[in-house]
Amino acid sequence: MASRGIHDRVAIVGMGCTPFGEHWDKGVNDLLTDSTKEAVTSSGIPLADIDAFWLGTMGSGVSGITLSKPLKLDYKPVSRNENFCATGSEAFRNACYAVASGAYDLVMAVGVEKLKDSGFSGLTGTRPVGDGTDAALTAPASFSFLAPAYCHKYGVGEAEMKDVLTRIAWKNHRNGAVNPRAQFRKEVSKETIAASPLIAGQLGVFDCSGVSDGSAAAIICRTEDALRYTDKPLYVKALSFVAGPGEGTMSPSYDYTSFEEVVRSAEDAYGQAGITDPRSQLAMAEVHDCFTPTELVLMEDLGFAERGTAWKEVLAGTFDRDGELPVNPDGGLKSFGHPIGASGLRMLFECWLQLRREAPPERQIASVTEAGRKLGLTHNLGGMPGECVSFVSVVGSEPSA
Amino acid sequence: MNSGIVAWGTYLPYWRLDRKTIGLATGQPAGRGTRTVASYDEDTTTLGVEAGRRALRAPGAPAPDVVFLSTPAPAYLDKTNATALAAALGLPGSCAAYDLNGSSRSAVAAMRAAAGSPGPALAIVSDLRTGLSGSADERDGGDGAAAFLWGTEGVVAEVIGAASATDEFLDRWRVPGEDESHIWEERFGEDVYVPLAHAAFADALKSAGVSAQELDHVVVSGLHTRAVRAVKGGLGVRGEALAPDRSQVIGNLGAADFGVALADVLERAEPGQLIAVLVLADGADAVVLRTTDALTAAQRANGETVERRAGAGRSDLPYIRFLTWRGELEPEPPRRPDPERPGAPTAHRAEGWKYGFSASRCLNCGFRHLPPTRVCLNCHTVDEMAPERLADTQGTVATFTVDRLAFSLSPPVVGVVVDFDGGGRFRCEMTDVDPDTVHIGQRVEMTFRRLWTSQGVHNYFWKAKPVEGSD
To answer: B423: which chain A residues are within 8 Å (Cβ-Cβ)?
Structure first.
């Protein structure tokens, strides 16, 4: 029994990512066409050469036909994946495994979500018929449980915590302001963030990720074939996925200051990638900042900060774009919104740009350009504290020696 | 046949409407004092459950083999409401459950049916009084419930006489589908009620073989307050025997009114005293009870009293919110999908959990699961679980939030993670609480509520609320 991983056996050789936002003029088919077209163009690989597809969408379509029909695929295999907010990452993971297994030479992972057609605020979804006993709390409420618990455990004052959460939102908006693909491309002042109307607990509107439409795609091949398609492939160092048993929502031992699923998936991924000190080895991390307290807790769960210290690191700017370890340099869910099936691949797209030094100069990160670090991490989680799924990947711009 | 009452319980909701706020909104004087108001998540079934829980909590209370629920404001028609009540009380499937709905007078029938049952029987009277905006019914009504467990062992008050008087006349009525009552000119009702009440009262005393002057406690109840007042004056009872009138604080509880008043009396009476209850509703019903030596122990065990509960509660309910809760005003809904109705098979499969709040405890390692599961979280043993009802187990708030986005008739929704005494954790809503006072470490208890109604289906489940008298 082991999670052996597929370290460096596959590589990303092409990617595409639509702008994320309110695409009133584009449907699911348009978004899928846009992202896959860009991926194909970036790699020079004709769509017809791709052997199999993995489509991640939570609710914008069911079955592989959601992809095969708009792209007019030539009777190819298409899997449709769903795994909560980690849906896009899950499509990518399965696509990588298919190549590593030797079953296919070239595959594509595509993520898409069209949220803005529903007319509702926040995320909605259709659930199986229930017994009516689940607390009708919204996602921001579920994640806002983290803040008072963290304060209680580490003796952080409520006002101090508000500053920490505000700074996370401020940082991600600042990063998104210079990213043309982001939904929100304006810096937001800390005063505006802190004064925004409350949604749940301490969380104001600006502590919550936006709601947007978007799509992203990646083309994957065996590492030994990668240089045929690009001189700058991105090598897959680790893929880890954990679905929790729901311990935290059922066991009084859980204190709402951590996601055990994230801790486990990070350990697994670091093991696969041979990472021992993520904070100094990673050039960047794209993490699931669905709400500001989530990003705070993730800094500790992913090993970027010691327990009980992430709040200080946030205030010190450790995770700023020009900080020691840039977190969400593209702007994160905060600036991009969260088209569920697309987000995981959007995170990889930022690694694709930054690690290959293709991000525009105004937002290139020094950890790559100056420190020469070569590894990026993406992290997705879905569910709620105590009961979630978590995905961690590590990708790198160089294969191991 | 049962010989008397063995236990009782009452429930008055947390909220009070200050009558002054009605006057401020309508511009018409609305009198002084307050009335009880069932919260947005309560109905006559949930009020009845809370009263029933208190009655069944009495030490040595026998398990009833029948439940009668009476209310003029049933949550469902066609479907029996007493079945939900029996399930929420954790009563076994062998317990019969019946509704006696419609007029206030049916509440008396519930008591008579329980009294006449061959085994222990629970009678629950519950009401939620409402009226058109600015009406006397709205102003003077109140919401609450009372429960009486009847039996033969450990009787605290035995029936020694009863009588009724019936007449057909139009005083208060409502056509099915209407929410508010119509009332004929008051003076006509008074003229009909007074002689009926006096006749029933005299006959009951005669059958009990006691005189009016011998009575220690007298309850006179009815929605026709003018007739009630007139009747009281002509009973020939000692002035101090008349039960205290709490309508200025709790309002007139309609079908539940005599029940709450009788409980109030039982909480203050002494052994060997005589109690008469006279109810005016489409005629009059009178009963004479004599308390027993078992009363003292029952009072001690009961703890909770009508007097204390009437004086508690929160009276800053805005009139607009009251109207919203009563369906008189439709608020702007959030931009969120409507809540889903629970499925009939899913709810039925989960009956022990949804209604009985029954967890599962692992027989191998003792870990307690909410909701109940078949596989142990802790030791992974499969199908070695024992059900465990936690409805009466208190807990502590592990963390909390105030959700301003979630759908509610009374936003914001307070969400808490509760760790139960003796093990087990559950995430649920918290009710009857000021959101600003919720804190980690707060002590909570469970209460049966109607979470929402969707597509004509009431979604009942349990919520946490602060332990009364603690903070």
So the answer is: 252
